[in-house]
Amino acid sequence: MSKKIIIPTIAFLGMVFMAFYTAKIEDKSVSINTNEVKSTETFPSIVVVELFTSQGCSSCPPADVLLEKVKNQYPNEVFALSYHVDYWNYIGWEDPFSHARYTKRQSYYNQKLGYRGNYTPEAIVNGKEHFVGSSTGKMYSKIDKYKSQKAQNQIALSNVNRKGNSILFDYEIEGDISDKTLRAVLVLDERTTSVKRGENRNRTLKNSNIVVSESYNELKLSRGSGSITIPSLVRQNEGTTLMLLTENEVLDITGATKIKV
Questions:
Q1: What pTM, to 2 d.p., does this model score?
Q2: Rounded to an integer, what distance in angstroms lies between the CA atom of residue 152 and that of residue 113?
Q3: What is the mean pLDDT of the chain?
Q4: What is the pLDDT of residue 24?
Q5: Using CA atoms, how far apart are residues 22 and 101, in angstroms rounded to an integer?
Q6: Alpha-carbon Rg of the chain, whole angstroms?
Q7: Whose CA is closest to 71, among 96, 47, 99?
Q8: Residue 38: inside a domain, yes or no?
Q9: Which residues contact 49 (CB under 8 A, 6 or more apart)?
C-alpha cells in the first residue's frame, strides 16, 4: 500500500523538478534574447536642423530668428545649420553666404522627400522631414520628436587645431559606419548684415550658425583625421563652430557632435 503512495509522490516530485528546470532554461533563454536586444547600439539623441534661407527672401527673417532661438534654448541637443541658397540673388541682392552647392543639397533633400522644387525658408530635421522654417509649432514639435529618439552613431572629436586657413581634427565614431559619410561643417556663429537691395532692402538682418565651409569623407574606418578650410569671408576674431555629422546613403543623419573653434 505504501509503495503505491510513494511511486506517485516520486513521479510528482519529478514533474515539479522538470518544470522548475524548464523554467530556468526559459529564463536563461529570455535573458540571452534581452542581451541580444541590448547589443543593438544606440546613443544620445540628436536634432540636426538645416535651415535653407536667403537674405534676399522677405519671408526668411522670422525663420532666421527662430533658428537662433532654438540654438540658444537647446545648446546641446540641437545642431543648427543655416544654409544660404543662391536662387534669390537674381532680384538685386547677392547674399554673401549663398552658394550653388547649398541649393543643390536642398534639391537632393526635396527629391528624397517627394517635394517638387525648392522653397525658402525650409527646415529639414535629421534629413528626414521638412516644413516651413518659420513655423514655431512645427519646429518645437519636431525637436521634441527627435529628442525622444536615440541616435545610431556617436562621434568624438579630439586634437582640434587651427593651422593657417584650415582646421585639423581627429575623430572616433561608435556604432555602425557601413555606407556612411562623415560631413564636416564649419559655421559662423553669427553675422549682422545691412541689406541694401532686394526684398529686404534697408533692413538689418542677423543670421546665426551660417554654413561657410564643408567637407565630405566616405567612412572606411571608425577613427581618422580630417580638415576643413576657413574661407576668407570669415573675419578675424569672429566665432566659429565645427560640426561633424554622420549620414547614410539616403541622407538620413545618424550622429552629430560640435565644438567651438
A1: 0.84
A2: 21
A3: 87
A4: 35
A5: 63
A6: 27
A7: 47
A8: no
A9: 67, 70, 78, 79, 80, 81, 123, 124, 125, 139, 142, 143
pLDDT by residue (tens digit) across 34-43? Answer: 333 334 688 9
The parent domain of residue 78 ranges over 47-260
Please check whether residue 108 lies inside any domain of the structure.
yes
Residue 130: inside a domain:
yes
Name the residue with cell 551660417: 210
Residue 206 lies in a domain: yes
Alpha-carbon dihedral angle through residues 22, 24, 26, 30, given to the nearest 10 degrees: 180
Residue 130, domain CATH: 2.60.40.10
Lowest average pLDDT, out of 29-33, 171-175, 220-224, goes to 29-33
pLDDT at residue 256, as a whole number: 98
In the chain, the number of structural domains is 1
Cell of 2: 505504501
Give the 3-state secondary structure of residue 185: strand
Share of the chain above pLDDT 70, in %: 85
Query: Which residue is listed with cell 585639423?
Result: 168
Confidence at residue 89, expressed as pLDDT on a 0 to 100 scale? 97
